[in-house]
Amino acid sequence: MRVRLESVCRSVGWLVVLSLAGVVVAPATAFDPATDSDPLHFEIVAGLSDPEVAPRGLSVRSTPEQRELAATFLVDVLRAGGLEPQRHRYRHRNANPLVDLLLPPFRGTNVYAVLEATEAGAETVIVGAHYDSEPGSPGAGDNAAGVALVVSLARELQETYRPYRYVFVLFDQEEDDEIGSRAFVRYLRTLDWTINSAHILDVVAWDEDGDRALEVQISRDYALQAVYTEVAAQLGIEVTFTGGRGASDNRSFADAGYSTAGLWGDEITPHMHRDSDTWDTVDFGLMETAEELLFGVLVSLPGRIGGSAEELPGFGAEP
């Protein structure tokens, strides 16, 4: 496993900032940064999934109350890292309008932060992962690991030249037919941004054969595949490409016409959607490999005119 000293040092610095900001995280006694990976990865994965480590007793993130606690934790984490997080609150109507008379609409909160480009007039790149989990599951691999990667990439990109505006989004309610990401796609239509592409992380957590291989689901724009192919070859990372609309929040962006990539481990964790999906089943080395790949892609994307979102009935932000 490749461990970069500067990455470890930056992560330790982040933990200090988190503590000063009041985000108290228990010592990671079971985690050794000399042999594992980025300590920030662990602190976020465990902080979302392990009530003994989490500052607010977080674990399962499926009820509205649990998800709101998780959103508050993520706002604190992003702010502690020097970003200005925002809450995108939305509501989703029931399929039958008459049901709205009897039951309240679905409501949720996406958390996002914008990192502006180094130069004005740049296109926008979306980087996202969902933070909710299935009922009864701590959701460490699905998908606290993806959340940790989004936050870590935001940290890395603050320290380099940025050819794009990067929007880091942590989606609510992926487990409910991607309600959160579909609401965010509709929100994007209200902004004067040209979207270059969207990159969505999910279940980058399991690597039983130890090959550090990844799966990338490419939707709509196969020029995006060429970028992933080139960066993966430079880094010596094995990547398998699949097509279609995707199987997570990447589907929301693909359906809206955006150039989209969904990044997964090439093996699905057997703990997915189970109460055994705890942080000690997560392969943090695979997470580091995914971060290396996606960072390389995000700074190498060619300029292009992104797709425009189509109308998605039933989804919208609260006024």
Give an overview in words.
- The protein is α/β, with parallel strands linked by helices.
- It has a single domain, classed as Aminopeptidase (3-Layer(aba) Sandwich), CATH 3.40.630.10.
- The protein has eight helices and nine strands.
- The chain has helices spanning 5-20, 39-49, 64-80, 140-157, 179-188, 223-235, 250-255, 284-298; strands spanning 86-92, 106-115, 124-130, 165-171, 195-201, 214-219, 239-242, 260-265, 315-317.
- It has a nine-stranded mixed sheet.
- Strand 3 (124-130), helix 4 and strand 4 (165-171) form a beta-alpha-beta unit.
- 50% of the residues are buried.
Count every beta strand, where a strand is a DSSP E run of 2 or more residues: 9
Strand percentage lies at: 15-25%
Number of separate helices: 8
Low-pLDDT ranges: 1-31, 305-319
In terms of quaternary structure, what is this?
A: single chain
Topology:
Elements: H1 5-20, H2 39-49, H3 64-80, E1 86-92, E2 106-115, E3 124-130, H4 140-157, E4 165-171, H5 179-188, E5 195-201, E6 214-219, H6 223-235, E7 239-242, H7 250-255, E8 260-265, H8 284-298, E9 315-317
Features:
alpha/beta, Aminopeptidase, 8 helices, 9 strands, disordered N terminus, globular, 9-stranded mixed sheet, 319 residues
Q: Quick recap of the structure?
A:
The protein has 319 residues and is an alpha/beta fold. Helices cover 33% and strands 18% of the residues. Strand 3, helix 4 (140-157) and strand 4 (165-171) form a beta-alpha-beta unit.
